[in-house]
Design brief:
349 residues; 7-stranded mixed β-sheet
């Protein structure tokens, strides 16, 4: 089969490799689409790849074409989304259902071959079925959707409150949608680029604000009558904006950091004092799993995509690139401003 194979830093090639065969408890999937995750970029353009050669890809959809022995839940022809985490299922974290905290895990697309290929083989539990009403492009967005929903679970989200989502990338757009679906009273999208704000509105934000506006903080606080936001989700990974959430928080707020910072962070006394004086709760969110594996995050994504409450908008996809041109896809990420949304790799040409 053909695949995009990483051989070393800045060297990803479209080439033939061995066609995989499913073993016991595994399924073979004909890949339709794979999304390029932000974590994939430094594995090609940086030094983050675990080993070479490597086939990346963990946000994917496709059709089951072959099953191994002891596969009972899936059959050839089933439409599936990839569930990339392969937890050990033996440690204390897994026993509690905290699969994302497993220290002995594998991961499809980073620690074992992934979906930037014509076919991928995964354990049966790592292929999540979805109905015909859900498109394969939506299927490739299951993983980022579940990441956003998991963040809501991390802060024990409840409706009827003021919510701010900082960052309108793919994760932020899904966080907006989940906050809407579960009943935000006021839902404010905050983003640097004004170009993404109309899309955030279509996803369900009641109000949108650009941080390029000199008075953006005053605008945001005015929408809450000066009280601040009860829930804040940061999907930027930008150190300055992550700290800005402290200033935007209401008393007793709950703040979740979904984004991952790329540099060291430090805090002034005043910045840290916001936590003391407001007594807000600050937590992180890691991946997208709960018990029984892979969890309600995946079940609800399949359900709400099917009902249409979880919206797919073509504007969420910035570029669709054929697998044969995969080197060009990663070159885009070297150009400032060249990528404004999700880049999909199409494995069917």
């Amino acid at each position: 089969m053909f695949a995009g194979v990483v051989h070393e830093q800045n060297d990803i090639r479209y080439e033939q490799i061995e066609d995989p065969k499913p073993g016991r408890g595994e399924v073979k999937i004909k890949v339709k689409y794979t999304g390029i995750c932000g974590s994939d970029v430094p594995r090609v353009n940086g030094t983050a790849c675990h080993f070479f050669p490597m086939v990346l890809g963990h946000e994917f959809s496709g059709i089951v074409v072959e099953t191994g022995e002891d596969v009972t839940r899936l059959k050839a022809g089933d439409r599936v989304a990839g569930v990339p985490l392969v937890p050990c299922m033996k440690c204390d974290d897994c026993a509690r259902g905290d699969f994302a905290l497993c220290k002995h895990y594998s991961f499809i697309g980073s620690r074992q071959y992934g979906s930037m290929a014509e076919y991928v083989v995964v354990p049966e539990k790592n292929a999540f079925p979805f109905d015909e009403e859900v498109s394969f492009k939506q299927g490739a967005l299951f993983e980022p959707s579940t990441v956003s929903l998991h963040a809501l679970d991390c802060v024990e989200y409840r409706g009827g409150k003021n919510v701010a989502v900082i960052g309108c990338g793919t994760i932020g757009l899904f966080a907006i949608q989940w906050a809407r679906i579960f009943g935000a009273s006021r839902l404010v999208a905050i983003n640097r680029s004004k170009e993404r704000l109309p899309l955030a509105k279509r996803m369900g934000a009641t109000d949108v604000i650009s941080t390029l506006d000199e008075d953006y903080y005053e605008q945001a606080m005015a929408l809450t009558d000066g009280k601040g936001f009860d829930y804040i989700f940061d999907a930027t990974g930008n150190a300055d904006m992550m700290k800005e959430s402290f200033r935007l928080a209401a008393a007793k707020a709950r703040i979740c950091m979904i984004g991952t910072p790329k540099k060291e962070m430090s805090f002034t006394v005043k910045e840290w004092e916001y936590m003391n004086r407001k007594e807000f709760t600050l937590t992180g969110s890691w991946m997208s799993y709960s018990a029984p594996f892979p969890g309600r995050e995946w079940e609800l994504t399949a359900h709400y995509f099917k009902t249409g409450d979880l919206i797919y908008d073509d504007a969420m996809i910035d570029k669709e690139i054929p697998l044969s041109h995969i080197p060009e896809a990663f070159e885009l990420f070297k150009q400032s401003g060249a990528v404004k949304g999700k880049v999909l790799i199409n494995s069917e040409e």
